[in-house]
Specification:
The protein is α/β, with parallel strands linked by helices. Helices cover 41% and strands 12% of the residues. α5 links the parallel β6 and β7. α11 crosses α13, α14 crosses α16 and α19 crosses α20.
Length: 482
């Protein structure tokens, strides 16, 4: 796992004010003022997040972003500028920056970006799958895996409307791939070379969400010490995704409706309107028609968003797609962990096809990673899905990994923090972990994949939040830095 470290590439006086609250929150901060120093720090310390100036003497953030392809697990980058512009913001977002802020850096905003309980920030998956012979989706980077007629109908409609500017409402159960479809639409649109900006409407309270969407002027509220460009301005010319749109408060829904109708926004505290050219996509895992009837979602906004409705089927309704996806994920994790490709036993196939999949594709992906780690030389059986952890017994043909030699990376006497990441080499050599180490590995991976959200992690693991909390407390008592 990456260290709980942030890297700042800036003049010391512009960032050191946030170092103290960072330390109190359990994070370390590094500082660099040139490209070589930044790259060396990234390779050595694996920061979870980078804040950087767009340009300084002898340094360019553009050069930093260009290095992302050469460094494994390159962290998200946030550009912060003294005098920002929409053009500059758009340029850096297209180059791969995570976000674009105006100075000064605010601790209140930085802490919203920090991984909960010091778990690494993870960017959402942009890729459904690479091209392969078993997939009928569009070839290339943004590809949909699925041969089932219900999935093909949605895919066909998405392709047909991708190049239009029409708003699209993508609905479906949690874990069905709504954000992936949104990125598919953007990638196949005429705006694919412009910014794609996503925001989760459930992640922020109303006053902060309004500022994030529309921006604010200096002095518009306590803490607004400079002008801030909102997501709509940053996405101008491109696409904005409003994730979990049904969680937006009614007052903000009215302001969003005006943006959709008039193509202009009002910054919080502003006196002038700002024209924006943005294609709007929205997602929901709720029954939005019921929300309209209940009065929690505006009917006029629903009609404006629902120009093109895309309803994704649940995984349990997709028949043989389950095995298509299962094989894809097994191949992915075998490659990631340096293992030979594993096959499924007949009883494992029957179990996969008969399971109800309440967590949909996301649950299947996590289950396949678990199975790859547990199956050793294979084949994968249903016991490797770990449906009953108390009944698990390691394979006799594999030697369990000891905590001190394989997982810690140092001797117990060294006093260093244990590194719980299983290397490809040790996985290939040992094939299977002890149940306690496997449990620890799965818990940490689930927290990584949910950006530290314990509720979502517990849901993926099939355990209660209380059980997860107790396990984490045990690990911390044992000396793990979580």
């Amino acid at each position: 796992m990456p260290d709980n470290t942030l890297l700042f590439i800036a003049e010391p006086q512009s960032v050191t004010s946030v170092f103290s609250p960072l330390k109190e929150a359990g994070f370390q901060a590094g500082l660099a003022d040139n490209l070589s120093g930044a790259i060396n720090f990234i390779k050595k310390s694996s920061p979870c997040l980078i804040f950087t100036r767009p340009i300084m003497q002898g340094y360019s953030a553009q050069a930093l972003l260009a290095e992302a392809v050469n460094i494994e697990n390159f962290p998200p980058v946030i550009i912060f500028s003294r005098n920002g512009s929409t053009d500059e913001a758009q340029k850096f977002l297209e180059l791969g920056a995570r976000d674009y802020w105006l100075e000064p850096l605010s601790w209140e905003k930085i802490k919203l970006m920090l991984p909960d309980k010091k778990h690494p920030i993870q960017l959402p998956d942009e890729v459904a799958a690479p091209a392969n012979k078993n997939t009928n989706g569009t070839q290339g980077r943004y590809q949909v895996i699925g041969n089932h007629p219900a999935m093909q109908r949605v895919l066909s409609l998405a392709k047909q409307v991708a190049k239009s500017k029409a708003t699209v409402l993508i609905s479906g159960e949690s874990g069905t791939g709504k954000e992936m479809f949104a990125r598919f639409l953007h990638h196949h649109s005429d705006r694919s070379d412009r910014a794609f900006v996503a925001i989760n409407c459930a992640a922020l309270p109303e006053h902060l969400l309004e500022s994030e969407l529309f921006g604010h002027e200096k002095g518009s509220f306590t803490g607004a010490i400079s002008r801030k460009l909102g997501k709509f301005e940053l996405a101008s010319g491109g696409t904005i995704l409003l994730d979990e749109i049904t969680e937006m408060e009614l007052g903000l829904q009215a302001k969003l409706l005006r943006v959709l109708q008039e193509g202009e926004i009002d910054r919080v505290g502003g006196v002038e309107t700002v024209k924006v050219d943005v294609r709007v996509l929205a997602t929901t895992n709720r029954n939005i028609e019921s929300a309209v009837k209940e009065g929690t979602f505006r009917q006029d906004l629903f009609y404006r968003l629902n120009v093109i409705p895309l309803k994704l089927p649940a995984l349990a309704q997709r028949g043989d797609d389950i095995m298509l996806l299962a094989n894809f994920f097994v191949e992915k994790y075998c490659r990631e962990y340096g293992l030979n490709l594993l096959a499924f036993s007949d009883e494992a196939r029957q179990w996969l096809l008969g399971y109800e999949w309440p967590g949909n594709v996301r649950e299947l992906q996590n289950l396949m990673e678990r199975a790859v780690l547990l199956a050793g030389a294979g084949p994968i059986g249903s016991k490797h899905f770990l449906n009953d952890p108390d009944a698990w017994m390691p394979e006799e043909s594999f030697q369990p990994i000891s905590e001190s030699s394989e997982l810690s990376g140092t001797s117990p006497e060294s006093g260093h923090t244990a590194n719980t990441q299983l290397s490809s080499e040790s996985a290939a050599r040992s094939g299977v972990l002890t149940i306690s180490e496997m449990e620890k590995q799965l818990i940490i991976r689930s927290l990584d994949q949910t950006s530290g959200n314990r509720t979502k992690a517990a849901d993926l693991l099939g355990i209660s939040v209380r059980t997860l909390r107790n396990k984490l407390n045990d690990y911390k008592k044992a000396g793990l830095d979580l």
